């Protein structure tokens, strides 16, 4: 009996090992383990075995069955693996073909520059606010210490709607609105469109964008103005950026200054980009003029502040080396797609 | 303002520095140098030579061979030239071998200049070059004695006749100098004068400032016997000073004066004109000279003009005046427009014998406005406009008379007529060391501050803590102004850099800006690129956009002084900007374009404007190239959803937008409010904008989006029970809208409805020409149980029955 079983097992295993595909393996399974299979036949012949031997024979048969089943399973897994490998091989694609990217639009260079500026100042605790573009003459001039008939009104080539309503020439008008709210301290930036009657050319546009900044608090100093804007310049133009403050004049600040940054092309050595100066003018700034504070009922002996203003286009043009301002308003997609 | 360094040095004699250092240092104390020009840039090895002998060139008719003496030892060299104005004995500038001139061969100034080397001209050796004034980097405006088309014959000028042979020509001609161009701010009227800048320079370099010393002038006669002055319009004329010069001898001014004027860009004319210009540069005070013999009654009256009065200015042009133009008149007639230009009838001519000098202080604003109305712009006017110091008038006129005597240009009559209507009193400003330090964030002591004040001639009383401000400084009124003086000379660069202390505050955007940012980002990720267009446009755009007469959109704000009609109204819709940009792209053959703009429109509350208009932020999207209405509609949906508009968005067909195709447009409705529109651009409008491809627009009024946005998402449990889905295919007339069908389904399906989705639209012969078929997938689900067929069947029956009212029946 034992020999017979061994023979069946050894025959089965060799057939399994020799099988070449899954169907053959199934046939072998039926041939040995099926209802009419050889091993089943042996089991059926158990009745002829002596009663005391039956448990032992039974165990032998089971062991034989297990070993065949295990071998079939193993072989089956081998087959599956092989099939999968072949399938994978066939599925190889050309990964260098282009990807199916959805078309994403591009931000306007002005907007990118604006967001850069906003991020820096929001990080320093500034609120981003807005003010009207069509503005009372008073907010644009008088409240900024530019009285009627002041030459600065002409210098800025104002567009008038009526005698007392203008297109704002500077975002500085937002300073007045913020102070008018009566809430101190103030720490704000105000981006927006401004208008001046300059003919359109490569460096001028009758409509452009500015960003105004205003800080009013009890102990704000000129040193704070310097530190804040130096920090801004580093974040905006790179850690190595140096700044230079030059005395200047704005009716609504005193002392006033213009800030230059070291040329980001040559690092300050002087090149064509900075016209050999090593410096590039970026913004105007100063301590809020006491008269401007007084007009808003803010006591200049208790509160001090600084303000600054910069042209957004100027920053965008410099940053991207755009040599003609008109490109910013044509909206040629081949231009916009570069940003 | 252009000024040569040599002129500044005349008043700051100890000044020694390189141009670059000068530029940096002066800029940093507040007198900004824009640029500088070295007159001797590229001028090398150019000496005074004397032509000893001229012979014909053996092989060239147009060339001559010169023997030129080039030093005092008598050494000479051979130079071939094509110039025809040379002669034996002439003294000329000679560039020696290896030298350099400013121009190229065509006579144009070039960077780096041109190197001159010895060589052969038609076989004859030439060891250098004789030069024209142009090759020396200048021109005949500045050097009127130089030949316009030949060699500069130095010996023709009496002042150069005795120059040493071999001496440096740039030095001789005053070209060893640097001219600086300054940007003077409008508050520093005093710096529109060489003396004013020199005072700043002296303070900057901590060197003494030595202003011109003006001698007493005038003979024993009394000016009052020559001229009387009466100022009627004393509101517009603060001071009028007059002096008289007789026995005038017109002649060229001396070289030193010509050189200084030329360096400032002023062409030398004759001694009288040059002195006037010289003093205007030096003191910043414009002056005018009248011919005494042409002044009727020898009387000057300063008064307003009459409306409509005509007057011929000395440039020969007739001007029409009005009552706000200030005039200088004689006893009978006007003889000059005050501060702007003199009259033809009183101008100085070559035969002048006696003249009346005027140095006045007119009201700057009046001069500025008069100049604007008259369309005139003169140098004098530019000075007056800034508001001059009346104290300066007397000093300047005395300086001019001083120069007249010095130059022998005439005999100055004793005394001056001085009508001083409004005596200028110096400002006195209190200083407070602590407050200045508190403003600047510095720790500067009192003595140091005082030293800075005194450097620019502010006088200090330490007892009373007061600063007396000289009248020429019209920018110092209060403490902050003094703080600026301290800061300038302490050094803006030395003030520390700190960050504001104060309480910590959080920064951020307003809600409006945040939502606009979301909309921008959504548009961008939908493939739209950001455009930027002008806020003003032409009134013609209304016709281009087919906006009917009397339409609200035509009620636009008009700019009273626009840059031409194309920029004359404030836009009431953003469409023109978008369509213009799309048109630009289309006509440049850009194939697929999607643009958006986030910008304001300007809606007046009433016209003409009495108060600020409403400014409404608009998101405008436009596109063409392989897209259709539903692409735009999908884009609108995404943007609105991203912006937090979670409720139902509906679309009203034919919103009545004349610029859109009537059958392909919809108003976007949310919360019963029309918040925007979208559609295909009307074919006529497309033609107006020269676009030949179907173009789609959408406009969303962001003010509604900001109003309706919600940020109150609440989690709903995930479904525990299965859904039942029923697909139905409906046939109906073409004019039934999908929106109507959907409304019926949603209404009748009730609360079991989870989702209704259109999955097929069919039109074709199989269902009839005027029919269409819509197929919907309707999903039902109950939150508390598994739905049974009976439940769903009942609802579906209701839906199908109700749809029959629309004429929609199940497709068999």
H/E topology pattern of chain A: HHHHHEEHHEEHEEHEEEHEHHH
Largest sheet of chain B: 7 strands, mixed
User: Could you give the order of strands across the largest sheet of chain B?
Assistant: 28-31-32-36-35-34-33
The fraction of residues assigned to DSSP E strands of chain B is: 25-35%
The number of strands of chain B is 40
CATH superfamily of the largest domain in chain A: Bira Bifunctional Protein, Domain 2
CATH topology of the largest domain in chain B: Phenylalanyl-tRNA Synthetase, Chain B, domain 3
Largest sheet data of chain A: 7 strands, mixed
E-strand count of chain A: 10
Give a written overview of the molecule.
The complex is a heterodimer of chains A (339) and B (812). Chain A has 2 domains: 2-90; 109-336, Bira Bifunctional Protein, Domain 2 (BirA Bifunctional Protein, domain 2), CATH 3.30.930.10. Helices cover 42% and strands 20% of the residues of chain A. Chain A has 13 helices and 10 strands. In chain A, a hairpin with a 2-residue loop joins strand 3 (160-162) and strand 4 (165-167). Chain B is α+β, with helices and mostly antiparallel strands. Chain B folds into 6 domains: 2-39 and 178-204, Phenylalanyl-tRNA Synthetase, Chain B, domain 1 (2-Layer Sandwich); 44-172, OB fold (Dihydrolipoamide Acetyltransferase, E2P), CATH 2.40.50.140; 223-420, 3-Layer(bba) Sandwich (Phenylalanyl-tRNA Synthetase, Chain B, domain 3); 430-490, 2-Layer Sandwich (Phenylalanyl-tRNA Synthetase, Chain B, domain 1); 511-708, BirA Bifunctional Protein, domain 2, CATH 3.30.930.10; 724-810, Ferrodoxin-fold anticodon-binding domain (Alpha-Beta Plaits, 2-Layer Sandwich), CATH 3.30.70.380. Chain B has 20 helices and 40 strands. In chain B, a hairpin with a 6-residue loop joins strand 33 and strand 34. At the A-B interface, helix 5, strand 1, strand 2, helix 7 and strand 3 of A face helix 7, helix 10, helix 12, strand 27 and helix 13 of B. Strand 1 (127-128) of chain A pairs parallel with strand 27 (508-509) of chain B.
